[in-house]
């Protein structure tokens, strides 16, 4: 057995230990399901869109920067998924994910929520950063517990989210400049 196969076997074993059992308290399944879905793109982008539409200039710009980063992050994760083509763990929960995105590596949910947590740290305020720093690992854990990802999928997804968040924060000035040709994307006041 190669080192690669040993790593995959260990990954599957550890992931199985985190996975919720069928006979677990039903409340755990509801909590896990809620957290696992809370990192869905179809939920996060509209929330950022509402903030962008209705918040003051400072939050308008934060939501725009986060949204632009999320869109490009989705393309990166999708490219990696189709490069590696690792099948999701066997299971029943998460039919929507299994049918629309059969590849598990890396976890897009973990990448997204970790990216948002890094952005919250960089953009503030502190309460927002703390909330997202608590939420992000819970989403990753729920994705494993509900059986749609392996541990390594989530770890690598989180690492991608961290790196992408750092890069977007470092490049926020050029991003503001790049998208300045679309006058309504960002407010004119700096944030």
Explain what this protein looks like in three dimensions.
The protein has 191 residues and is mainly alpha-helical. Helices cover 73% and strands 0% of the residues.
**What percent strand?**
under 5%
Shape: globular
Q: How many angstroms separate the termini?
A: 54 Å
| Mean pLDDT level | 88
Please describe the biggest sheet, giving its number of strands, its sense, and whether it closes into a barrel: none
Reading the helices and strands in chain order gives HHHHHHHHH
Tally of individual domains: 1
Helix proportion range: over 70%
Structural class: mainly alpha
Low-confidence stretches: none
What's the total count of β strands?
0
Number of helices: 9
Task: State Rg.
Answer: 18 Å
